[in-house]
Design brief:
The structure holds 2 protein chains of 2 kinds. Chain A is mainly α. Chain A is 72% helix and 0% strand. The longest helix of chain A has 15 residues. Chain B is mainly alpha-helical. Chain B contains 9 helices and no strands. The longest helix of chain B has 29 residues. The chains are: A mainly alpha, B mainly alpha. At the A-B interface, helix 1, helix 2 and helix 4 of A face helix 4 and helix 9 of B.
Chain lengths: 76, 285
């Protein structure tokens, strides 16, 4: 099973690019006091909060809902 | 293994990111632009009757409200409450202001036989500058927590400084500032100075800054509509500045120049459609 970091980056990159996807992951890790590689499925809620905060200004809410769903799908 | 089995084993076809509707509208807009250019070329070469030339003029003018209507339609669906919706609504409002300016210009020139420069149309045209700049500031700021924006903004500012210097040396100093009162009224001089500067400061510079910001997204879909906006703004800035230069220097106005403003707003309308498509594409591919 791929880690949360890889899943998130692979889900977000086609839409926002690798730099932005990585920023979402690193912001989540920072908020939890972890490294990006240490993130796991239990950190999904924190990731969702950070992704909504960071991507909110660049895409409509529905699109962000879709991105979150895509991340969740990539983890199952 | 039969051919039928092979067909069944093929991967399901991915839905297209850019919708058929966007493709059709884009094709229709560029067909209209091409038709306008052909007719306008004939008109400027005096190969059409006066009535036909007037009809071509009106046809070109009407393309602007058409583009504005498309952008307003798409942007209003995104809505003012969404940050990205505000960015697109501001662009659409700018296009609408320009379209109103064009219609007013045509009514004054064609309908009333008046010289429309300067006129009330020059109240509407510059509104696009301010609305477009505000949209660009919001768009760049929306990426400020995600990618580097400081350097692109500084480079955009540098482009503005260099561009203003070029406009001053090539247009303002040799032609517009020395123009006498018989050639240009005070208001005319003000407007003639403002437009080429506005092209650089309000269109070119923010477009360059935005391009440098979205460049960091690579080939990401959310950047696609902004690239179209950047191209449109560059076309506008070049067309408008060169038109002013060609008019004042006497190097000659051509039918191709009339394409610039329409092409810009067609690109903006297409960008709005592409934005809608890429946002809707999330989760579908």
């Amino acid at each position: 099973m791929t880690g949360l970091r890889e899943s998130v980056i692979s889900a977000l990159t086609p839409y926002v690019g690798e730099i932005v996807a990585d920023t979402c992951v690193r912001a989540t890790a920072l908020s939890l006091g972890k490294t990006a590689d240490d993130l796991d499925i239990n950190d999904l809620a924190a990731l969702e909060v950070n992704a909504r905060r960071l991507l909110g200004p660049v895409a409509p809410r529905e699109a962000i809902d879709g991105l979150i769903a895509e991340i969740e799908r990539s983890l199952t | 293994m039969t051919a039928q089995t092979n067909i069944n084993k093929q991967a399901p076809r991915r839905p297209a990111i850019i919708s058929t509707r966007t493709m059709r509208i884009t094709a229709a807009l560029f067909t209209l632009l091409t038709v306008f250019h052909i007719l306008n070329t004939l008109s400027l070469a005096d190969k059409l009757a006066a009535t036909a030339s007037d009809a071509v003029y009106v046809f070109g003018i009407l393309l602007q409200p058409l583009c504005a209507a498309i952008a307003v339609w798409v942007a209003s669906k995104l809505g003012w409450r969404e940050s990205v919706g505000r960015q697109w609504l501001l662009i659409a409002a700018g296009m609408t202001a320009f379209a109103i300016g064009d219609v007013v210009w045509a009514v004054l020139e064609l309908g009333m036989g008046l010289d429309p420069y300067p006129s009330i149309a020059d109240f509407f045209y510059p509104m696009e500058y301010f609305l477009f700049l505000t949209a660009m500031i919001l768009a760049i700021r929306s990426y400020s927590g995600l990618v580097k924006t400081r350097k692109p903004v500084l480079l955009g500012g540098a482009v503005a400084v260099v561009g203003v210097a070029v406009v001053y040396l090539a247009l303002l100093k040799p032609f517009i500032f020395p123009a006498g009162a018989d050639e240009l009224s005070v208001l005319g001089k003000l407007v003639s100075t403002f437009y080429p500067l506005g092209d650089i400061v309000f269109m070119l510079a923010p477009a360059v800054a935005l391009a440098l910001v979205i460049r960091q997204l690579g080939a990401a879909r959310f950047a696609w509509p902004w690239w179209i906006i950047v191209v449109g703004a560059l076309v506008f800035a070049l067309t408008d500045s060169y038109y002013a230069y060609a008019d004042w220097s006497g190097s000659g106005l051509t039918a191709a120049m009339d394409l610039g403003w329409i092409a810009t707003h067609m690109l903006f309308a297409i960008a709005a459609l592409v934005a809608r498509d890429v946002y809707r594409s999330v989760g579908r591919t």
